[in-house]
Amino acid sequence: MLEIKSLSISYGTRPVLHNISFELAVGTILAVIGPNGAGKTTLVRAITGFVLVQSGQILVQGRDINRLSAPERARQIAVVPQARQLPPAFTAWETVLLGRTPHLNWLGQTSPRDEEIVRQVMQRTATIDLAERPVGELSGGEQQRLLLARALAQAAPILLMDEPTSHLDLQFQFSLLEEVRSLARHDRLAVLVVLHDLNLVARYADRVALLVEGRLRALGSTGEVLTNELLSEAYHIPLEVLHAGKGGLPYIIPAFR
Amino acid sequence: MRIHWATRSKNEMKPAFRPYLISAALLLGALVLSVAVGSVFISPAALLTILASQATAAPLPDWVPASFATIIFSLRLPRTILMALTGAALAGSGTAYQGLFRNPLADPFLIGVASGAGLGAVIAMSVHYPYTTLGLLTIPVAAFTGGAATILIVYELARVRRTLPTTNLILAGVAVSSFATAGSSFLMINGTGELRRALVWMLGGSTLSGWLPVVALLPYAAVGLGALLLMGHSLNVLQFGDEQAHQLGLPVERVRLVIVIAATLATASAVAFSGIIGFVGLVVPHILRLVWGGDYRRLLPLSILGGASFLLTADVLARVILSPQDLPVGIITALVGAPFFLWVLRRAKQQNFW
Asked: What is the pLDDT along chain A (257 residues), one digit of tens a residue?
């Protein structure tokens, strides 16, 4: 369980996040949405301790994030970063194996158990066939799945994802998020995912946090946050939310020509 | 709707001893060659006989001249071991700098650490040239101080927030290196006759002979390289950049500090007794990475072995090209390394492969 309490962060004099509070519950997917520059990536960085918390608190299983050692933190929180600039010389297998880092001793010796875990997560993310290929040869989509596999190899109860679908084609966007939903439902992970595609948010998120200019403009279910008024105001363009398809899922379309 | 991804079983990853065997064989060959070649040729058979007679205290057979034993133990063997340790230290630290800066062109010479260590050593020598064992033992400490100061300056000059662009690194390295070299030259020309010997040393020629420099270098090189050998996994994680390394649970700042200190110590130990020898730390890890892949847990030990072989071979060339005169070995490594550097630069530019 992850709790954010009155979090504020500035870069120099420029405030980036202001008084953010929310909780991320076990077994749920929280989507963080908002226009570019709203502070989404900074939020992810703060939760991983890469950006220092200036005021407020971030608690993981009740413990302050700043008081955890680096391996302790990485055993609690795994991150799927945006796929770019992965070191091309490592093989896919070696890359995923590095996800075991917080569980290893300081020499980084891996055991058969670590390899078994890597094999499982690579099977689960359909990257096992790529195992011996150098990462530099893989497509953006394959690299993104590899990063999910590496995060899963960390075996952390909290999973953060920063725009994980941005390099994926339509089929893999859905399969990735289906997998993430299964991770939340069956493996009881707490998932925070930064997403730009509001239709994917509507389909997969349990709760939605709308960030605008560093403030938490709205927090609630998809039905509560994905509304004409809130979205049009946040993105500065008229948007319309339709309810269509099976189960009346919300669909967001631009309301202008 | 459930979409399933097709899966197949994957091949096992096998531990590979082959690279180590090949590297060890090459090193053994280079060691024997280095002992054999010189003003008199000493065959491997004679070498083995002498070593065996030394170990068993048995008298030498008639076909081995007694002078060979003196040549081996007081000249060839100490020089060979000094060169092997120097090459190992330079290649090991070069590998570490490349991994640390995530830059294929980081070499102790190119980024200025070697020249900075050289300046530190020359300052120490100008205060008191090492006639005494204690004086000799303090030179690596001065070299380390100079090298550490240099890397701090170069890093701060070259850094753009958290990244270290290749051009910046090399430009800052060249500038600081030129300054340090000029400072060293000034001190040497200004100095006493003893310091003039240091000019040969600056070009990468060993001026001290015998076992003393080997004994003085060994502890520093051993500590530096020993620490680096433990950092292979951390260097692997660092290849993903600071942010991902942090996310993977690596204490990034602490790890970087350990690597910088260990690599600079290894470089300083090499520079203190063998002078400024460029490009070993660039050529060796680069070739090994192309052959055996980028895993630093493997690359570090292989580079240490390979660096020893490489510098021994260069030193043999330095002894035979203008025989009976010895060339400073730094001339040979630069003749090989500078074109190699240009090739790597072109490659890095073309495919941005790092």
From this structure: 899 999 999 988 888 999 999 999 999 999 999 999 899 999 999 999 988 888 999 999 999 998 999 999 999 999 998 867 788 888 999 999 999 999 998 778 889 999 999 999 999 999 999 999 989 899 888 999 999 999 999 999 999 999 988 878 888 889 899 999 999 999 999 999 999 999 999 999 999 999 999 999 999 999 899 988 898 889 888 888 888 766 677 888 887 76
ipTM confidence: 0.92
The nearest alpha carbon in chain B to A81 belongs to B244
Query: Contact, B114 vs B330, CB < 8 A?
Result: no
Looking up tokens 């000029």 gives: B182
Cβ B232–A108 below 8 Å, yes or no? yes
Domains in chain B with CATH codes: 75-343 (1.10.3470.10)
What topology does CATH give the domain A2-61+157-254? Rossmann fold (3.40.50)
What are residue B314's phi and psi, to 5 degrees? -60, -35
**How far off is chain A from B13, nearest CA to CA, in Å?**
9
B251 touches chain A (CB under 8 A): yes
Is some CB atom of chain A closer than 8 A to the CB atom of B165?
Answer: no
Chain B positions in Cβ-Cβ contact with residue A122 (cut-off 8 Å): 10
Burial class (CB in 10 A: 0-12, 13-18, 19+), B23: buried
> Which residues make up the CATH 3.40.50.300 domain(s) of chain A?
2-61+157-254
Comparing CB atoms, the residue among B10, B240, B244 nearest residue A131 is B10
A-B Cβ pairs (cutoff 8 Å, strict): 109
Output the CA angle B173-B106-B277, nearest 5 degrees.
75
